[in-house]
Amino acid sequence: MLGYDVRVVYPEVAEAVQGQPNIMSSTEPAATETQLSMTDEASPRRKKRGVPEGLWIRCPDCQTAVFRKEAEKRLGVCPECGYHFYVSAHQRIAQVLDEGTFEEWDADLRPTDPLGFADKKSYAERLVAEQQRTGLTDAVITGRGRVRARPVALGVTDSAFIMGSMGSVVGERLTRLVERATAERLPLIIISASGGGARMHEGILSLMQMAKVSAALARYDQAGGLYISVLTNPTMGGVAASFASLGDVVFAEPKALIGFAGPRTIKATIRIELPDGFQTSEFLLKHGYIDRIVPREKLKSEIARTIDYCGM
Ligand SMILES: [Zn+2]
User: Fold this and answer.
1) How remote is the CA of residue 66 from the centroid of ligand 1, in Å?
2) Bond from prior residue into 234 cis (ω within 30 degrees of 0)
3) CA 99 / ligand 1 centre spacing (Å)
4) CB-side neighbour CA atoms (13 Å) of 251
5) Distance (Å) from CA 81 to ligand 1 centroid
6) Strand locations in 170-244, DSSP E?
7) Does position 83 have pLDDT exceeding 70, yes or no?
């Protein structure tokens, strides 16, 4: 089921350190700059993520100034061009589940710093800073709830927490989610917003989560479960290479960035020009990697319809 080589499971790092012969020795500041500056409070790139503050917001796609309330009314979608803004995991849960039905699971699982990892700052400090900034304990929320009265198990990753990357806690929460969905015969929905792939701060412990979640999904599949994977912007690296790609049905939001390694790494490796729109939802739909592009406003109905169609 998992045919990848452990040495290439860190595309995001490979992206950052291309040109350096050994990607696993990437703890030098220069090597991690590209990835980790995203999580640094001082970084100017920070401001680009999410629906910015203010009464009016500028759509990064069509450049129109959009009335914030109007975008929020449309679940964080630009009313002019349909651009899908970042929304948090909590917002997504509210958008997909019936009001008041969410019951969180495994919220008491907390990340640790097993390797004593440090780049610009120590991983332990980074975790605390990310928790304070996002209000999340790690990059995924899992639990059960109802979608138009249908009981489901739901997991949602949040790209605001260390790029939505998968460390031990994300992997363990997702695995337990899948196992409970198996035991309770619930349809399973995982919404991915993970640009970071496997979290390098936990090294091999992050990498093994890919196999662990995938194995749980295989058992869920053998038990006859229905797994709907929803890919949002961005879904990359070890997340795309494990649970996000294993849905019985794979949906994607319009114009989402979805892939394994970043385009620069691929270009440098295979030395050919990449086609237009490479790694977008639309490109991947055309090439059979995803089943349907579902705009955010339609996601709840589409999930309910799929559950009914599959007789869960
Ligand atoms: Zn727009």
Assistant:
1) 8
2) yes
3) 28
4) 20
5) 4
6) 188-194, 227-235
7) yes
C-alpha 100 to ligand 1 mean position (Å): 31
Output the pTM of the full model. 0.83
Residue 70 burial by Cβ neighbours in a 10 Å radius (0-12, 13-18, 19+): middle
CA pair distance 86, 77, nearest whole angstrom: 9
145-187 pLDDT, tens digit each: 999 999 999 999 999 999 999 999 999 999 999 999 999 999 9
| Cβ atoms of residues 185 and 225 within 8 Å | yes
Name the residue ranges covered by the structural domains of the chain.
Answer: 6-12+87-309
3-state secondary structure of 300: helix
Ligand 1 center to 62 CA (angstroms):
4
Q: State in Å: Cα 82 to ligand 1 middle.
A: 6
Q: What count of residues does the chain have? A: 312
**6-12+87-309 maps to which CATH number?**
3.90.226.10
